[in-house]
Amino acid sequence: xxxxxxxxxxxxxxxxxxxxxxxxxxxxxxxxxxxxxxxxxxxxxxxxxxxxxxxxxxxxxxxxxxxxxxxxxxxxxxxxxxxxxxxxxxxxxxxxxxxxxxxxxxxxxxxxxxxxxx
Amino acid sequence: xxxxxxxxxxxxxxxxxxxxxxxxxxxxxxxxxxxxxxxxxxxxxxxxxxxxxxxxxxxxxxxxxxxxxxxxxxxxxxxxxxxxxxxxxxxxxxxxxxxxxxxxxxxxxxxx
Lengths: 118, 112
What we know:
The complex is a heterodimer of chains A (118) and B (112). Chain A has 118 residues and is mainly β. Chain A is built from no helices and eleven strands.
């Protein structure tokens, strides 16, 4: 079974530029997540989709970050304009997204995109 | 809100040594608890999980027991190998909440 795919793996940009990341979840997984992992810290959830609807975007800096999941499959995360503090690894994860007891749902992570903002 | 505190690293061990990484949590209700591992150059992988009190998760020789009375989920392995060198993350999610809250991670290096 193919895992979660992400591209690009690495990206270097200047501050104030824009950048986009792409994620393809595991086939059949209804729930998709984007996390930000700053060096030396654990991942922090940015946004969560259930199919093509947003479930939680409370920690997404909406003045500069946006995300979409068209047709409930692939997703893109965009930063515009980028700041120095956005340097991090951006992780995409997916899970089946079952009903009650969803806290037990296992999330599968992609390899991440390492963003460096100069 | 939910949060996880795990032992700071880095931790350096010799092969066949005993490994323990402490993890405590703060949460309402009955969270599920997870250990994820990140090997060098790879993505996060689920190592083990426990979904209710007194459950023991185990995988690849690692074990962790969900202790509600001490709000802990410590990771242990009796005899580590060089291939266990990685960053280990403790995490939790609420019973009706998909969101994973991660600890800061503990870097483990095993020397031959």
